[in-house]
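User:
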Amino acid sequence: MATLPQLTGLAPHLTWGSILDILLVAFLIYQLLLLVRGTRAVTMMTGVGALVVVFYIAHLGNLRTLDWLVGTILPYSIFALIVIFQTEIRQALARLGRKLTLSRGTQNSAADAYDDIVMAATAFAQDQTGALIVVEREIGLRTYIESGVALDALLSYDLLATLFRPSAPLHDGAVILQKERVAAAACFLPLSMNPLLSNQMGTRHRAGIGITEETDAVSVIVSEETGGISVAVGGHVERDLTPAQLRLRLNQLLGRYAPAAAGSGGAHTWTAPAVNAGNTHGGER
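Assistant: Predicted structure:
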């Protein structure tokens, strides 16, 4: 196997700094591909790549008019890319900020393990009551909180059951939680435009996934049609969770202590207090 001195002999400009530079660029490209994988940015980047190839061929082919056009608009293209990929750029900066800060440690100090969410989601699933609960993490959700009705109330099972009762005026929209408090109800969320999502997912699921594409929030979704419990995070959704699985996922995602049930069987057969939901119609919302 060739050593570095031998390689530098074949390529005089190859140094340790050059190798480090190449590795860093490769790492950044890899992280960029991970960031856009499975999102609508993939198709956009494909189109941008096709335009770059066409313009490069025009430059090599001495197509002066097209080459002049490219040289004129190229300085402004960076602003267009920022507008097009603003969501992906925001996600990348947010992830970088999470890695460079220790703010996650503040979440671990909270005593509440969100068992009330598990209880409420299980009750909603049993009665097929649609619900969408969004838990704020490090990226603030003030914009979406202001779109709903401010509550600033202590989180509890009874409050969640009351808010999502079909006859309640605030049952439509999402409930947003900040730590152990209910910040607002009946909030409007951005809908996911991911073309890879199943056509069986309605507005509630797309809203729950959409907020996790824009922020680092965690969404708990209960289907009105099937009663299935889902968790969305980072633009991905995990469907048909049991109460025990939901408790475990919230523990993992929120970094909080969630007391395990006495045996896995108990977690699956636990019966939540009934919610007077009545019959709901209109399909998944």
